[in-house]
């Protein structure tokens, strides 16, 4: 069966510091991968999605970036965090079939102080 | 562009009563529609989806949803609510006929089931 991991689970970082959140998927090959941010426990904002190694689509221009160095690894980064980057970051994967049900990881709670 | 509206921020229902969480969508072409549930500080869990076929879709934990093309709606329902159903529910849509695989989510509806 497939599983998706995210770490760390929680993170507290000062403004201006760098960020690296990691997401890995097991039990599948060539998944589509997604990064979402959820602010204030409500709506999800799609940040990035990837259909293959090195292929990243950005949905919202901001100081975050994403990379996919391996087939089942998706990394969310920032060089300098802003207060507004605080939130709950969710990674998701979907199979390459057309139905595209997305399966979510446990999330990372980021607090920028 | 595709969009999802969940008109109710919160739905309150007594345990044992039927529940409905509303969702309407806007998409070019035929839609894929999904419902997810989120418990506090957790990721989203997939409940059910509509792709094609029967308009009534059955999913996990006794939930079902009815696709209504004329009203562009996909309301989530359960005949008898449980206290453990209390959570945040998200509707999502993706256009079938485009290459864009990302889902668009609604703003979420908080379901509170009172004992």
Structure characterization notes:
- The complex is a heterodimer of chains A (113) and B (115).
- Chain A is an all-beta fold and 113 residues long.
- In chain A, the strands form 2 sheets. In chain A, strands 2, 4, 5, 6, 9, 10 and 11 form a 7-stranded mixed sheet that branches.
- In chain A, strand 5 and strand 6 form a beta hairpin.
- In chain B, the strands form 3 sheets. In chain B, strands 2, 5, 6, 10, 11 and 12 form a 6-stranded mixed sheet that branches.
- The termini of chain B are far apart.
- The model of chain B has no long low-confidence stretch (mean pLDDT 92).
- The chains are: A mainly beta (113), B mainly beta (115).
- At the A-B interface, strand 5, strand 9 and strand 10 of A face strand 5, strand 6, strand 10 and strand 11 of B.
Give short descriptive properties of this protein.
heterodimer; A: 113 residues; mainly beta; seven-stranded mixed sheet; four-stranded antiparallel sheet; 11 strands; globular; B: 115 residues; six-stranded mixed sheet; 12 strands
């Amino acid at each position: 069966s497939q599983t998706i991991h995210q770490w760390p689970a929680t993170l507290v970082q000062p403004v201006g510091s760098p960020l690296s959140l990691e997401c890995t998927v097991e039990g599948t090959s060539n998944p589509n991968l997604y990064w979402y941010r959820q602010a204030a426990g409500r709506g999800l904002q799609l940040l990035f999605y990837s259909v293959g190694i090195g292929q990243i689509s950005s949905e919202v221009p901001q100081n975050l970036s994403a990379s996919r160095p391996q087939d089942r690894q998706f990394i969310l980064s920032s060089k300098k965090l802003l207060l507004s980057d605080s939130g709950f970051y969710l990674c998701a994967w979907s199979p390459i079939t057309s139905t595209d049900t997305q399966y979510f990881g446990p999330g990372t709670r980021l607090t920028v102080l | 562009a595709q969009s999802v509206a969940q008109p109710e921020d919160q739905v309150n229902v007594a345990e044992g009563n039927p529940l409905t969480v509303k969702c309407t969508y806007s998409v070019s072409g035929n839609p894929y529609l999904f419902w997810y549930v989120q418990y506090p500080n957790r990721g989203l869990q997939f409940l059910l989806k509509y792709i094609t076929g029967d308009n009534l879709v059955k999913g996990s934990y006794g939930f079902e949803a009815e696709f209504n093309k004329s009203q562009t709606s996909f309301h989530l329902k359960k005949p008898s609510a449980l206290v453990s159903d209390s959570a945040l529910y998200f509707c999502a849509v993706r256009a079938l006929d485009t290459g864009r695989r990302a889902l668009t989510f609604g703003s979420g509806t908080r379901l509170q089931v009172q004992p």
